[in-house]
Amino acid sequence: MSSHSGRYIGNDWDDDWDDPDPEDATDTAGDGADGADTPAAAEDEWSLQTVGRAATPTGSIEVQTTLNGLPTAIRIERTEMDGSAARLAKTILLLCRQAGVRAGARQRAELLAGGHTLEAVSYTGLPGEREVAAIDRAVDDFFDEDETGTWLRRV
């Protein structure tokens, strides 16, 4: 685990991106003229399970991802839009990778705690604590590099 555990979003992070409860969905697809119930458009849609979360040290960019690091939700504060688009894209991709690796390591630990053998779990290819430490170092280096780079300009 990274020594900066408070710097990034943890497992128990309470967010504003709660998935809507299917029971709360209202039928907006039918016009009600024929009296027949028409399935709501939301019932035809499906979504990927969000299992990973990561954020910048300031919290100005937050991502939610699948186990593989595929983003399911991204929140960006307006101030982040003033910078370089390439830098913003790199930040989002790095955070998605971090969230995915952490989620994979969490699932690996759950499988081991659930009684699965190390040999069986190793076949899944899920990342371990080393991979989590490596991505945390990469993220720390990326943001530490940015802190000094923002005020130094070539003349």
Structure, described:
The chain is α+β, with helices and mostly antiparallel strands and 155 residues long. It has one domain. 38% of the residues lie in helices and 10% in strands. It contains 4 helices and 3 strands; from the N terminus they run H-E-E-E-H-H-H. It has helices spanning 41-44, 85-113, 118-122, 129-149; strands at residues 52-55, 61-65, 71-76. Strands 1-2-3 form a 3-stranded antiparallel β-sheet, with helices on one face. Strand 1 and strand 2 (61-65) form a beta hairpin. Helix 2 runs antiparallel to helix 4 (129-149). The longest helix has 29 residues, at 85-113. The chain is globular and about 50 Å long. It starts with 40 loop residues before the first helix and ends in a 6-residue tail after the last helix. The model is unreliable at 1-6 and 24-41 (pLDDT under 50).
List the helices and strands and how they pair.
Blueprint lengths: L40 H4 L7 E4 L5 E5 L5 E6 L8 H29 L4 H5 L6 H21 L6
Antiparallel strand pairs: 1-2, 2-3
Helix pairs in contact: 2-4
Widest sheet, order of strands: 1-2-3
Q: Can you count the helices? A: 4
Relative strand content: 5-15%
Given the C-alpha coordinates, what overall shape results? globular
Q: Output the structural class.
A: alpha+beta
- For the report, how would you describe the main beta sheet? 3 strands, antiparallel
The H/E string reads: HEEEHHH
Give the proportion of residues in helices.
25-40%
Low-confidence stretches: 1-6, 24-41
Mean pLDDT score: 78
For the CA atoms, what is the radius of gyration?
A: 20 Å
Give the termini separation: 41 Å
Tally the structural domains: 1
Q: Tell me how many strands there are.
A: 3
